[in-house]
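Job type: complex structure
Entries:
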Amino acid sequence: MRTLFRTTPSLPVFLAVLVVFTLGVTVLSEAYGIGALSTSFIKTLGKTACLALVAIAMDLVWGYTGILSLGHFAFFGLGGYMIGMWLMYARTELIVLDSLAAAPLPPTPGEISDAIAGQIFGVVGAADLPMVWMFAHSFWAQMALVVLVPGLLALVFGWLAFRSRVTGVYLSILTQAMTLALSLYLFQNDSGLRGNNGLSGLQNLPGADAIPQATVSIWFFWASALALLLTYVVAAFVVSGTFGSVIRGIRDDEARVRFLGYPVEGFKLFVFVLTAVIAALGGALYYPQAGIINPAEIAPIASIYLAVWVAIGGRGRLYGAVIGACVVSLLSTWFTGGQAPDLPLGFYTVKWVDWWQVGLGFSFVLVTLFAPKGLGGLVDLVSHRLSPNRHGAALGPDTGALREKEAEQ
Amino acid sequence: MNGALLEVAAISVTFDGFKAINRLSFSIGPAELRAIIGPNGAGKTTFMDIVTGKTKPDEGQVLWGEVSRNLIGMNEARIARAGIGRKFQRPTVFEDQTVFANLLMALKNTRAPLAVLFYTPKRRDVARVEDLAGEIGLAEQIRRKAGELSHGQKQWLEIGMLLAQDPKLLLVDEPAAGMTLGEREHTADLLREAAKTRAVVVVEHDMEFVRRLDCKVTVFHEGSVLAEGSLDHVTRNQDVIDVYLGR
Amino acid sequence: MIRRLITAALLLVLCSATAQAQDMTIQDVLQEHREALEKSSRRTIGPVIDAIADSDLPAARLVLERWRDREMWQREEDGLFFYGEPVDRSTERLFDFETGADVGVYSTRDLDQLKPNSGIQAMIAAALVTFQLDDPDPAQRRTALEAIARSGEASHLAPLRRSITKETDPVLRAEKERTERLLTITFGAADAERVAAIEHFRGSLFLDVRAALNPLIATTTVYAADLPPDANVKRRLRAGSADLPVAEAFALLVEAGLATPPPTADERKSALVARIENGQVAGIPVAALDTQEARDRAYATLAAQGDVPAWDPQFSEARAVEETPFAEVYTEPSAAVTTAAEETLRSINHTVAWNQVLDLSLDGLSLASIYFLAAIGLAITFGVMGVINMAHGEFIMMGAYTGYVVQQVIPDYTVSILVAIPLAFAVTFGAGVAMERLIIRRLYHRPLETLLATFGVSIALQQIAKNVFGTQVRPLTAPDWLDGALVLNDVVGISYIRIAIFVLALIFLGIFLFIMQKTRLGLETRAVTQNPRMAASMGINPGRVNMLTFGFGSGIAGIAGVAIGLYAKVTSELGQDYIVQSFMTVVVGGVGNIWGTLLGAGLIGFLQKGIEWFNPSNTLAAQTYMIIFIIIFIQFRPKGIIALKGRAAGD
């Protein structure tokens, strides 16, 4: 841990800020404090922590390893679906048991599962529990699936993609195709996951109806903050040391790393699967706070937004991803929630609900063009940690070509 | 040739109808310095691509080591782990990382992802990296980012990374390009030193530099070997003169 | 009136060959059925209409027409029937059917009007059809023939056959013969003529032929132990096979009265509930009845006491039907007819399958041309500049909205489309050039960042379109001459819009090839693609070439937008629906080669249609499978169908 603090100077700062923030929110919450923050705002903060978590995963895979994955929100959503299945099943089971308790005969196991299936799948006109729900009754099995299903998907997809040495924009397009295929599949009614209805009622913890949402929301906030903290530590561990050197090497010059004898595909696959699992865990924490998950959540556009957050926050630095996810998603909530005041221009009144997206799009372009380091670059201005600046124009058109001053030496 | 470290037997490769390598045979012993010269398009770089696994030949064999393992079909990383190091024409070091990190990454060590993840450099490793940095004249710059080095320093860093890999065979592509006179001398010394314990193949255009290496020379032309011998021997060869001066 | 009389007279002459001895008048026929006529009930009137129609009397048609039109009257004093023409509100002038003679003017008080209801009117009209078959007016004959073809009856067969020999128009004659055969298939008296008619239609693609044949091979599955000896059995069945599931077989047994269904789980449960006494059923506490086994035990106890219907827990439907024979029996009794029908249908299905392949290929081709149009611009920019333009879909959308706006200004659809196409090109060309100059130029050698920056433009453009045009669907109407479809037969057809898009795709392929091979810009573009440094040193300005290429690619996207807008709905999300397929097309096809894009579009178009054909109900699943296929395809050809080879492709 001490080495980690030394190699990652941002870690202690981040830990301190996160702990102070969590304590502050707790003190201001309804359940354990003075009630200055509404339950829905606490949920927003908890969800934002989960988004920051998946942004760290994205930063690992894109900012450090150079794989612009446009599919990590698919893993996020899959994690949500896996935990959602248990939440929905367990809660429906309680409701069904409750309603069957009044029946003249005590229900048989068969009757219970039929009634649950009817409750859950009535909306898509099915009455049987599909195969994919075979573990839904067990919390631990379903928790294992949160990790296993997205992990396995990432493993198979990554193995196929990296093995055939698909790189760059090709790989991005392929990951996007994977996401699209998954969301289209889930949109079908016979996918076994309720088609476009998705899974709902996830905010109600089974058997915890007596506990007010204000309390549940702060629990989830704590869990999300803890998960974010652990993710940060794990990510800091991965990117420090030789492993970090190798993956950054892969980002900058994949062939060179190969000639050093490193199995590039294995490294990429490891990072891809690890980040998929992190994303899935984030999703498993996010959707119980959101309350509903449907296939639209994993549409390709969501994964691109993820890249946008990381780019705005600053790639290749973990706190950049966190800052980007928090700033952009909170601003988005504020603008699209109708809380932002309209901007009268005299001839036209800018309603932010309509125009926020336009602003986001163009400011994203501006960040890419003029501030490739993102918001994290501001930290450099403070800490004077500037990248090598070799003045003078390049002598040749290649990157890394001799520069004027160097040639004079 | 008995006891050869690398034996390339009758390889050919064609790009879109153009025969880049045409039944080329070549071999080198375990501790030998060899220079390859030849005009542009003679197939020097393609030859290196084939040996390192970047390009697959249409026919022929590449046999390696005492047990004469065939290298064809192995990927670049496995060939590199088998003990062949390569230095590219342009200096390719990881500019975003320190000299230390560059050398540490190249250091002969475990290469499997999980093992690398939990690897922490031993004192021995750190000492070896510092030795190497001294050897290539970058002891002062060890904590600086590679991107801040001069062109020549980057070339040396790359040679240092090659040495850190501890390969049995070093393939060096135009190491002296863009170097000042002093830097060239240093580079030639480095290569001659390296060749005492391992095989080194240097591809070079610059005859002065080749003379400085003072070793056996192989001349490539149109994808096959035109002549072989000492530099003086090959420069007197009528075929070589024809090729270089034009018929 | 006079015309009708002449018609009747002509008919008389024409029918003279078949007319029988005129010892019976139409009045006799009517009087014979007087009672039924007076009652005029739909159930009893059928024979009367048939009697009139089949009397072969020249006046029969007139009677039926007048009757249908509620112009037939019965004189109360003697019960005779006449047709009348109103003189004023309460008097009618009557005429004799046979001769057309004026019988005199009567008060409606002394007459009864025959008022057929609409049901009877329809029956009369059907009977009249046979007369119209011989009408001198070919249009009338055609109408009658079409009426028969729509809803033929056995009674039509004889008059239709008669009318064939008299038909003078060769086209009508052929159609009559065809209709006659169709009727013979269903209503023919002898098996031989039916078989002949059936076999005549081998390989026919018409839907009405299949409609006539299919009922012949309809079967019912029955319990087959006591089949009548003349039953036309298609095949014997065993229960539990794929064609006869156990549950169905058991239901047939129950229907045949050979088995009694055991009480279902629900029935047993309600029987248990009804017998709860003091918290116990049959001595077992209710709380213990929470498994099916416990309930079964309780029920068995009750059954042993005789309280409830007996139930054997060991009973299995499968065993009950195990040894029982079942058979599939044709509803059509004649084996010769069913065999011929099966064979003919087989040959028809064979032809239909081939034509479906053709139809599917046309569908695939039209989808491929859409993808080609959508992807060609993307392929150009990706190939020349190595840049993926995520806003390409939004350029397509801009083209579609340009078309919509032009149609608001120019109401003529033909003119507006002709204006919209170049205008859409101009608009998106400008947008493309602006984007190249402002964004892409600054991000050379950073393809991933270009991808993201253009994505930023994409979300902004999409939202702007939403703000300007709203979220509702905007129409982009095709001109009239593009409406409808080119129908080759009852299986193969393709709409004109799709043909137009195909032609458009061909034109763009041509234009592209011309520009690339024959113009200075094409030469420079190829040079920049292959070696930008060398091209620059030869005096080509890569910046200018890139700008024009990007503008050109974007302009084609705009035109694709107009084409797509003509048949898809124009919304701000139009581009998104096509962008991923366009990416796939480029990736599958290979970069930097127009033929690759063409092949990619073809592969994806045909593949999508092919998968949809296997699973027609589910286009979502089809797209899923297609994407999975493409991901696997990339495994084997990572650089696409047409890949650059050699050292140029090295890195």
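Summary: The radius of gyration of chain C is 38 Å. The CA atoms of residues 339 and 534 of chain C lie 76 Å apart.
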